[in-house]
Specification:
By secondary structure, the chain is mainly beta. The protein has 3 helices and 14 strands. This is Outer membrane lipoprotein-sorting protein.
Length: 217
């Protein structure tokens, strides 16, 4: 199911017409699947987003220390739920680090390990949820001055995206399987980023940095 949504997000596209504004948002994820036995399962979680300039911060809401223990008893950061900071460096290249709040350290991930932690290196996708520079093959309908509805149907199922020109961000993404047994939805509630909002990557900037590979021991 995860691959279905990732594939759908990577397929989305159309040229972004304006610079992405600063914002803070709550992003809600929901996955609904119905098995052959008729049992329906629902998974929900939410993230706090902050986008400011060339920085994006994602933080899973409701999680504790975002840690897990292996069979050997070692404690490791749960990268799927950990606080994630993505930014562009002076050469406009994306950089990635995770924040281990319990240890007050930053886990820096080199490009060769990005796929291990679920990052594909796309700045548009990291900062806007989808790469809105490529929406080929989707029908398009203007719902309002701000919202554009994109749709695409295929043998695998249907995909829908409601894009906000104001926020340069989707407000809703839905992916459905052709048989109707799987549905994934992402809903975004954005608001302006107040100048007084503490920027979390600045708060952790002085913490010691550790290489991702060192955390695998």
């Amino acid at each position: 199911m995860k691959n279905l949504l990732i594939s759908a997000l990577l397929a989305l596209a159309a040229a972004a017409q304006a610079a992405a504004p600063d914002l803070q948002a709550v992003v809600r994820y929901e996955t609904v699947s119905r098995g052959a036995d008729g049992v329906e399962k629902t998974v929900r979680y939410s993230e706090k987003w902050i986008r400011q300039g060339q920085h994006v911060w994602r933080e899973r809401l409701g999680s504790s220390q975002a840690q897990r223990h292996d069979d050997d008893g070692h404690q490791h950061l749960d990268y799927a739920a950990a606080r994630r900071h993505v930014w562009l460096d002076g050469r406009k290249q994306p950089q990635l680090e995770f924040i281990h709040a319990g240890r007050k350290e930053r886990i820096q991930v080199a490009p060769r390990e990005w796929s291990d932690v679920g990052f594909n290196g796309s700045w548009p996708q990291a900062s806007q949820l989808v790469d809105h520079a490529r929406l080929k093959g989707f029908s398009r309908r203007q719902e309002s001055a701000d919202i554009t509805l994109y749709r695409k149907a295929s043998a695998e199922g249907g995909k829908t995206l409601r894009w906000s020109r104001r926020w340069q961000m989707p407000l809703e993404i839905e992916v459905r399987s052709a048989d109707g047994r799987q549905r994934e939805t992402i809903r975004v509630t954005p608001q302006a980023l107040a100048p007084s909002t503490p920027l979390p990557w600045r708060q952790s900037a002085g913490w010691p940095a550790r290489d991702y590979l060192d955390t695998l021991d």
